[in-house]
Automatic annotation (TrEMBL):
Annotated Fe cation binding sites: H84, H86, H134
Keywords: Dioxygenase, Iron, Metal-binding, Oxidoreductase, Thioether bond
Gene3D superfamilies: Jelly Rolls
Keyword Metal-binding among UniProt keywords: yes
CDD domains, per database record: cupin_CDO (cd10548)
Official protein name in the record: Cysteine dioxygenase
Record-level Gene Ontology MF annotations: ferrous iron binding; oxidoreductase activity, acting on single donors with incorporation of molecular oxygen, incorporation of two atoms of oxygen
Family membership noted in the UniProt record: Belongs to the cysteine dioxygenase family.
Top-level taxon in the UniProt lineage: Bacteria
Cross-link 3'-(S-cysteinyl)-tyrosine (Cys-Tyr), where in sequence: C90-Y150
Length: 172
């Protein structure tokens, strides 16, 4: 881990150990992440490498007690997630490039677009289940990198995704 990543893990640890509810923890962790998104040496060169077939996950840190994980996701142009939700609270910050997010709600067994955002470098967002159904994509022409912090042990789970959704879309 870089020294900045070690410092980030300490700042997150302090907030997670407060024992707040999931949504409040996500807000606290957003505050911790924000200043680190401007650190040019947060990631090592190998943690900035993408995969031409799919967005790539680099696990950066898993807290020894499993209470949180820090992951870098590297997105090449056009790459996206399926519509999905999460096993825990989640905080995301754009480190490089631009990411587009679409949030959904389920109504009568249909997905309904509930909102969307274009996230620039330095911007953070967070959420906690329920209400965390979304799709994230790199709609730009260059690589995007985002830092994700999950309230779960990604080393054991492999992913923060609880469920992917393959429901029909409905008008809002």
């Amino acid at each position: 881990m870089t020294s900045q990543l070690t410092e980030l893990a300490g700042a997150i640890r302090e907030r997670v150990q407060r024992g707040a509810e999931a949504a409040e923890t996500a807000e606290l962790v957003q505050e911790a992440l924000r200043p680190f998104l401007a650190e040019p040496d947060l990631l090592r060169p190998e943690q900035r490498i993408g995969d031409p077939d799919n967005y790539r996950q680099h696990v950066l840190h898993v807290e020894p007690d499993g209470s949180f994980s820090i992951v870098a996701l590297v997105w090449l142009p056009g790459q996206e997630t399926p519509v999905h939700d999460h096993v825990s609270w989640c905080v995301t910050g754009v480190y490089e490039g631009v990411e587009h997010e679409q949030r959904y709600e389920i109504r009568d067994d249909h997905l309904v677009l509930a909102g969307h955002a274009t996230n620039q470098p330095g911007e953070v967002c967070g959420f906690a289940p329920p209400g965390d159904i979304h799709l994230v994509r790199n709609a730009g022409t260059s690589k995007a990198i985002s830092i994700h912090i999950y309230g779960a042990n990604i080393a054991v789970l492999g992913s923060s995704v609880r469920r992917s959704y393959d429901l029909p879309m409905a008008a809002a």
